[in-house]
Write a structure and sequence with these properties.
alpha/beta, ABC transporter transmembrane region fold, Rossmann fold, 2 domains, 6-stranded mixed beta sheet, 4-stranded antiparallel beta sheet, 20 helices, 66% helix, 8% strand, ATP binding, nucleotide-binding, ATP-binding, ABC1_TM_sf
C-alpha cells in the first residue's frame, strides 16, 4: 500500500460536490479501478456458486455420475478460492481508497485553514471546522470506498438476472422487475434521511462551537458567576441535538428495517415460484436449489446498492461542507507580481498611518495611551490587516504573505502553546540545546524547564494548561526568540509576570536580539527604560519620540500612561 498522506494533495475543483468527489476518484484512479475489478470478480464468483451447486445436483447426484459430481464440486471449490482472493484484494484497495480520500480531504482543509489564517474564524464557526475534520472526511471516504462493492453488486445482479431469464423466463422477469422496485422503495427513504442528517449536522456544529467557547472561557465564567447560565444553555442545545438525532434515527431505523424486510419477502416469493415450477416439471431440482441460492445471494447486492445510495448521498452533503471551507478566500491576497526586499535586517519599517518609523537593528518601544492602538500598529506591521506599511520602501501589500511571515514575526498574547514535546514546541524547526538555553535565559524561563521532571523532553498538554499564565508568556517569548526573525514585534510580552522577572527580561532582551530589529508594544517602565527609542502613540498617531527618561520629563501624558497616573 502507498504511504499516506501524500506530499501534495493537489488542487481540486470547488464548483460542485459531484465534481469534487469525481476528482477524488480520478486522482487515485488506479486503486479505484482495482477495487472495482476485484469487486466485480468477487461478486461474479459468488453469483456463479448457486449454478455450480445446481449442476452438481442435477448432473452428479440425480444422474449418479461421480465424475460430474467431482467436476462441479471442484468448480465450486475454485469459485470459493477465487472469491476469497478477490475479496481480500477488493478490501485492500477499498481501504486504500477510503484512507486516500479522507487524508487528502483533511490535507486540503488543513492547508486551506493555514492559508486563511485569521480570516477563518471570522467566516466559519469553530464547531463547523471541527465537524468537517471529524465527520465529513469520513463520509467522503465512505463514498469512494463503496464504489468497488457497488460495482460488484450491479454486475452480480445483472449476471443472476441473465442466468434466471435464460433458465426460466417467469422467474427471470420477477428478478428483473423486482430488483429496481426494491431499490426504488428504499431510495424513497434516502431523501428525508438526507434532510434530517443536514439538520443534525448543523445542530452538531453549533453545539461543538458552544462547547469550545465554554472550555476556553471556563475560568472567566466561574469568575463572573456565569458558569450555571452557560451550562443551562449547553443543556438546552444538547437536547435540541438529541431530538435531531432521534429524528435521524427514526428514518435510519426504518431504512435498515426496509433493507431486511423487502429482500426477505423477495426471496420468499422467488422460492415459492421456483417450487411451483419444479412441481410442474418446468425446472429441475438442481435449478430450484440454484434459484433459491440466487434469491439468497440477491439480498447482499440489493443491500449493497441501498448502502451505496446512502453513502453517496452522505458523501455529497459532506463534500458540500468541505467545499464551503475551500471556497473561502483570505482577506489579504498575494500580489500578482510579488516584490522583494534586498536586506530586511538593515531596512526601515514604516507605518504611515501612525507615523511610526522603526530603525533597523535596534529595540523600538511603542507606548500607546490605549492598548488597542498598539495592537492595531502591530497588526499593520505584521500585515494582519491591509495598510500602507512598508519595509525598505516596499509596501508590505506588494510582498507575498509567506514572505512577510518569514521577515516579520508578531508575537502577542493570543498565541498558544500546542501539545507535544516541549523541545519541539519551542523550536519546531530544530535548535541545539545551547540555543534553546540562551532563549530560555533571555525570557527568564529556565526555572520553568528545570522544574519539569523530563526537562525539554516533557510533554506539553493542550494549550499548555499545566503552566500558569506568566509561565506560558515566558515560554512563548522563548519560542519567538528562537525563531530569530529579521524583525520581531512583541505585544505586551511581560504583562503576566512579576516585577523582578520583568526586569530580568527587559535587561536581557536587547542582548538576545542584538543586530536584529525589535519592536515592543508595552507600557511597562522597566521594558521602556531598556529600549533604544520609545514612540508614544496617542489617538492612533505618534505624538512624541525619545528615550524613556526624556519622555517622562517632557510629555506629561506619556508619564501618566506609563506610571498609571493622571495627567493634569
Amino acid at each position: 500500500m502507498r504511504g499516506l498522506p501524500v506530499p501534495d494533495p493537489g488542487t481540486p475543483p470547488t464548483r460542485t460536490s459531484t465534481g469534487y468527489l469525481w476528482w477524488l476518484v480520478r486522482v487515485q484512479a488506479s486503486t479505484v479501478v482495482a477495487a472495482i475489478m476485484f469487486g466485480v470478480v468477487w461478486s461474479l464468483a459468488q453469483a456463479l456458486m448457486p449454478a455450480a451447486i445446481g449442476k452438481a445436483i442435477d448432473l452428479g447426484v440425480t444422474a449418479r455420475d461421480t465424475g460430474a459430481l467431482v467436476l462441479w464440486t471442484g468448480a465450486l471449490l475454485a469459485l470459493g478460492v477465487l472469491q476469497a482472493y478477490a475479496g481480500i484484494m477488493r478490501h485492500r484497495n477499498a481501504c486504500q481508497n477510503w484512507l486516500g480520500s479522507a487524508y487528502r480531504t483533511m490535507q486540503l482543509t488543513v492547508r486551506q485553514a493555514t492559508r486563511l489564517g485569521a480570516t477563518l474564524p471570522k467566516r466559519m464557526a469553530t464547531g463547523e471546522v471541527v465537524s468537517v475534520g471529524m465527520s465529513d472526511v469520513a463520509h467522503i471516504g465512505d463514498t469512494v470506498d463503496i464504489l468497488g462493492r457497488g460495482a460488484g453488486a450491479v454486475v452480480g445482479i445483472v449476471t443472476v438476472a441473465t442466468i434466471m431469464l435464460t433458465t426460466s423466463l417467469q422467474l427471470g422477469l420477477v428478478v428483473v422487475l423486482g430488483v429496481p422496485l426494491l431499490t426504488l422503495a428504499v431510495t424513497l427513504l434516502i431523501r428525508p434521511l438526507h434532510k434530517r442528517q443536514a439538520a443534525y449536522r448543523a445542530e452538531q456544529g453549533g453545539l461543538t462551537t458552544r462547547a469550545a467557547d465554554i472550555v476556553t472561557g471556563l475560568r472567566v465564567l466561574r469568575g463572573v458567576g456565569g458558569e450555571a447560565a452557560f451550562a443551562a444553555r449547553y443543556r438546552a442545545e444538547s437536547q435540541r441535538l438529541r431530538a435531531a438525532g432521534v429524528r435521524v434515527a427514526k428514518v435510519d431505523s426504518l431504512l435498515e428495517a426496509t433493507q431486511v424486510l423487502l429482500p426477505g419477502v423477495f426471496v420468499a416469493l422467488v422460492t415459492w415460484l421456483g417450487a411451483r415450477l419444479t412441481v410442474a416439471g418446468d425446472i429441475t431440482p438442481g435449478q430450484l436449489v440454484a434459484f433459491y441460492g440466487y434469491a439468497v445471494f440477491l439480498m447482499m447486492p440489493l443491500r449493497t446498492l441501498t448502502e451505496a445510495v446512502n453513502k453517496i448521498t452522505r458523501g455529497h452533503v459532506a463534500a458540500g461542507r468541505v467545499l464551503g471551507l475551500l471556497r473561502l478566500t483570505p482577506e489579504l491576497a498575494d500580489p500578482a507580481v510579488p516584490a522583494t526586499v534586498r536586506d530586511p535586517g538593515a531596512a526601515e519599517l514604516v507605518d504611515p498611518e501612525s507615523g511610526l518609523v522603526v530603525a533597523p537593528g535596534r529595540v523600538t518601544a511603542v507606548a500607546a495611551a490605549r492598548p488597542e492602538e498598539a495592537t492595531a500598529i502591530a497588526d499593520r506591521l505584521g500585515r494582519y490587516r491591509d495598510s500602507d506599511a512598508a519595509l525598505d520602501g516596499v509596501p508590505l501589500r506588494q510582498l507575498t504573505r509567506a514572505s512577510v511571515r518569514d521577515l516579520i514575526l508578531v508575537a502577542d498574547n493570543d498565541a498558544r502553546l500546542f501539545s507535544g514535546r516541549l523541545r519541539d514546541e519551542l523550536a519546531p524547526r530544530g535548535a541545539d540545546d545551547e540555543r534553546i538555553a540562551a532563549a530560555l535565559d533571555a525570557a527568564s524561563a529556565r526555572d520553568i524547564v528545570d522544574a519539569l521532571p523530563d526537562g525539554l523532553d516533557a510533554q506539553v498538554a493542550e494549550r499548555g494548561r499545566e503552566f500558569s499564565g506568566g509561565q506560558q508568556q515566558r515560554l512563548r517569548l522563548s519560542r519567538a526568540l528562537l525563531a530569530d526573525p529579521p524583525i520581531l514585534v512583541l505585544v505586551e510580552p511581560t504583562s503576566a509576570v512579576d516585577a523582578h522577572t520583568e526586569a530580568r527580561i527587559a535587561a536581557r532582551l536587547a542582548k538576545a536580539r542584538a543586530g536584529r530589529t525589535t519592536v515592543v508594544c508595552t507600557t511597562s517602565p522597566l521594558v521602556l527604560d531598556r529600549a533604544d527609542r520609545v514612540a508614544f502613540v496617542d489617538g492612533g498617531r505618534v505624538v512624541a519620540e525619545g528615550t524613556h527618561r526624556e519622555l517622562l520629563d517632557r510629555v506629561p501624558r506619556y508619564a501618566a500612561t506609563v506610571t498609571r497616573g493622571e495627567d493634569g
